[in-house]
Design a protein that fits this description.
alpha/beta, Rossmann fold, five-stranded mixed sheet, 4 helices, 5 strands
């Protein structure tokens, strides 16, 4: 009887996961509110963010593109640099997910994130600034009832916090 119950529960669980599964996080969900920075740099920047390898090259590429768009939008909104260029620019900002941890389920969820930030001069290739930044975010059922939405919330907010911290540190630089 227990085996039959288990066999019947599997399709129901698969259907539930399919209907409530975690969709990809959009650039808008990764983009923090405009940041008031201590200093705005008059130079331009080229931005690239590399997401953690998701085991699927297309998903990783899409996630990296969403994160790059979000950081570029945050730079433009905060005026951290005078502009963000797809090609060229005075500086190249490369951000890479080093470590990322989040629960697969639970009433309370916490996402921890460590991203490596590197700012280089485009003309010389010299590294101007390099630092790892760690952030985290927690959410409970009151923040998002659906587990999939709660997971998206903790992941995207940890990324937003990382972007805000990175932009504040860049603003403190003498470029």
């Amino acid at each position: 009887m227990n085996k039959l119950r288990t066999l019947l529960a599997l399709p129901a669980a698969a259907l539930l996961i399919t209907l409530t599964g975690c969709a990809g996080i959009t650039p808008q969900e990764y983009t923090p509110a405009p940041v008031q920075l201590a200093k705005q740099h008059p130079q331009t920047v080229n931005v690239s963010v590399q997401a953690k390898d998701l085991g699927d090259a297309e998903r990783t590429k899409a996630e990296s593109a969403a994160m790059t768009t979000a950081l570029s939008d945050a730079i433009v909104a905060s005026k951290a640099f005078s502009g963000v260029l797809k090609d060229g620019g005075d500086y190249k900002l490369t951000v890479q997910v080093i470590n990322q941890a989040y629960p697969s389920m639970g009433f309370g969820m916490t996402s921890t994130l460590e991203m490596g930030w590197t700012l280089t001069r485009k003309d010389t290739g010299a590294v101007v600034w390099q630092q790892a930044i760690k952030t985290e975010h927690s959410a409970g059922v009151g923040d998002a009832f659906s587990g999939a939405e709660r997971l998206k919330l903790v992941i995207s907010t940890a990324v937003k916090k990382n972007y805000v911290e990175g932009l504040n540190r860049i603003a403190a630089l003498q470029l």
